[in-house]
Design brief:
- By secondary structure, the chain is α/β, with parallel strands linked by helices.
- 37% of the residues lie in helices and 16% in strands.
- It contains 15 helices and 12 strands.
- An 8-stranded mixed beta barrel has the order 3-4-5-6-7-8-11-12, surrounded by 6 helices. A two-stranded antiparallel sheet has the order 1-2.
- Helix 3 packs parallel to helix 5, helix 5 runs parallel beside helix 6 and helix 5 packs across helix 7.
Length: 427
């Protein structure tokens, strides 16, 4: 990894940047594809499809049927496009949703205008200087969240060959073409220490089409561009697949190409038990240990950091004060339960702090950097209590141990930015 460097960002200007909005995809209203800019409209479609979840997820490669014609209310002016047309005025053949979405992912991979685009989510040091950025996927619906359903449908290892081919092309472009293009187009971004890109465990296999795709693209670069790319790009091994038995050989092979690795979304055994995540996240601290030597950076999952340690998970919302009050009065961790309630995990906050402090000290002794994947601020009362509790356990993340820590989100929260916007607002 490159020596420490950073960017000073104009945060106030960046926070005013609005996500791009595109009303139609090849003439079809984005709302008919589950990608509209109206949350109520998207939720109505999700309800009709029996696919609960976040309004801006996109609901994947669903088929349009006659039953969905009534799913989107026509009376709400906010659900109309700029010409006053209702979404239900469009005719969507059953298979067109998947075709259009695959077309847009292909356009994205080819560097052409697309409804999907790659954005950079800043990662900050304790002085609020950007030291890195993670590449995230966004859709042109104005939302600060990923089109999760569409991404999951695209990267399904059991998807038909047509979809897998698009995925391999798109992911190969994300790993190689995107970073070198943005580093050449916006040289100021070379001052970041790293740019991280998510890759699933099965895609790392040396016999996978993805590995072959990346090698082909790497050797199409000039030697200078290849050196620049490999000096900046960090592969984040994702947590959503169980690592295959040969994962270590795969990590070594990619490292021999010149890539370095981060361990994404690490969580503790105590957190998995408290939040019922045993089958959702394979990146426990126990699973990390045998592979630790391959990672220079370990990332602390938002559920471990936000729900259990710093008591500031975004889902808590306006109940943060109550969560803090209960932690102080009862010594217990409470988490969000539905839109307006809290749930007692039965876990002592002191035990959470002790567990994290012991693990982080072990990481530091092994020379690893730690990225906390939630906004942690010293002037936030919930965070402040945890920070002080960790200090009492000989872990000072904003003091003597600060060089080992970075924070993803920070002053930008969940907002990710097109590379041109991030470069534009460097100071």
């Amino acid at each position: 990894m490159r020596s420490q460097s950073s960017l000073v960002l104009n945060i106030s200007n960046l926070l005013e940047v609005k996500g791009p909005v595109q009303e139609r995809v090849d003439g079809v209203l984005a709302a008919r594809l589950g990608l509209g800019q109206s949350a109520p409209q998207n939720l109505a479609l999700r309800h009709a499809l029996h696919k609960p979840g976040p309004p801006y997820g996109g609901v994947g490669f669903f088929e349009w049927t006659a039953d969905l014609e009534q799913a989107i209310p026509d009376s709400d002016e906010a659900m109309r496009d700029g010409n006053g047309c209702n979404p239900s005025s469009d005719v969507v053949p059953p298979s067109l949703v998947m075709q259009l979405k695959l077309q847009e992912f292909e356009r994205c991979a080819n560097g052409a205008p697309s409804f999907y685009f790659w954005a950079l989510h800043p990662i900050f040091d304790n002085s609020d200087r950007a030291v890195g950025a993670e590449v995230l996927v966004r859709a042109r619906n104005g939302a600060d969240s990923a089109p999760f359903d569409d991404i999951h449908a695209l990267m399904d290892p059991n998807a038909p060959p047509q979809i897998r081919k698009v995925y391999e092309h798109w992911k190969g472009a994300e790993i190689v073409d995107l970073p070198i293009q943005l580093l050449n187009d916006f040289p100021v971004l070379r001052r970041l220490r790293f740019i991280s890109i998510n890759v699933r465990p099965l895609d790392l296999a040396i016999n996978s089409p993805m590995y072959a795709e990346v090698i082909t693209r790497l050797w199409e670069l000039s030697p200078e561009d290849r050196r620049l790319l490999l000096s900046m790009v960090c592969i984040e091994l994702t947590e959503d697949q169980e690592a295959p038995p040969n994962i270590e050989a795969s990590l070594v092979a990619w490292q021999e190409l010149g890539f370095c690795f981060a361990y994404d979304d690490t969580t503790s055994e105590l957190t998995c038990q408290a939040l019922g995540m045993q089958n959702d996240n394979y990146h426990t601290t126990c699973n990390l240990e045998p592979l630790l030597k391959h990672f220079w950076l370990v990332k602390v999952d938002i559920n471990w950091a936000g729900n259990m340690i710093f008591l500031c998970h975004p889902s808590i919302g306006d109940r943060k004060a109550e969560v803090l009050c209960r932690a102080c009065a009862e010594g217990l961790v409470y988490v969000a339960h539905g839109p307006s309630a809290l749930r007692n995990t039965g876990v002592k906050h002191a035990d959470v702090l002790a567990e994290f402090a012991e693990w982080a000290q072990h990481m530091i002794l092994r020379g690893k950097k730690i990225c906390i994947e939630v906004t942690v601020r010293q002037d936030d009362p919930n965070c402040a209590m945890a920070i002080e509790g960790l200090r009492e356990r000989n872990l000072d993340i904003f003091g003597m141990h600060s060089a080992y820590f970075c924070i993803q989100g920070g002053l930008c929260g969940p907002k990710a930015f097109e590379p041109s916007e991030l470069a534009k607002h460097c100071m």
